Amino acid sequence: MSLVAYEEFARRSYGSLERPRYDVISKRLEKEPYRDLLEELERLGEIEDVTDLNCDVAFAWKIRSGEPGVVVRLSVVGPYAAVFRLHTDGYETGESVTEGPWGEQDRRVIAAIEAAGFRTLRSEELEQRMKINFPECGGNASIYQVFFSEE
């Protein structure tokens, strides 16, 4: 996907790339717009909400039906998802599930997300950078930061 498309979703959600507004994002998180998808994911395994409302601009859920499980992040900035493997100790590894190899749970999670209209981003897409005036990023943030977590 082109950087221009990412920038357009970011501009629509934050109001501006030069002066992004976070209050709009917070209101979207409070409305729980992905309730139907969450119910679908609950059928795939045990769910734990790990969304950090202080820094996330996406919902984050750990899903375990076997070990070790995955973390699903669903952006409220654009129609994007990121899915990462969990370590056996329960923490997020940062290893994107989209690179494979896929287990049965991985396939079912990604299929449910994509059926709901999200595009699951790969590691190289998450690492791309765009100009947006996030003070903590010096005006140049990764796609991951823009769509999933400001940290």
Q: What is the helical fraction, as a range of percent?
A: 25-40%
User: Secondary-structure element sequence?
Assistant: HHHEEEEEHEHEEH
Broad structural category:
alpha+beta
> With helices defined by DSSP (H or I, 4 residues minimum), what is the helix count?
6
Q: What is the molecular shape?
A: globular
Low-confidence stretches: none
Count the beta strands: 8
Distance between the termini: 23 Å
Description:
β4 and β5 form a beta hairpin. The chain has 151 residues and is an alpha+beta fold. The two termini are 23 Å apart. The longest helix is centred in the N-terminal third of the chain and has 12 residues. The strands form two sheets. Strands 1, 2, 3, 4, 5 and 6 form a six-stranded mixed β-sheet that branches. Helix content is 33%, strand content 25%. It has one domain.
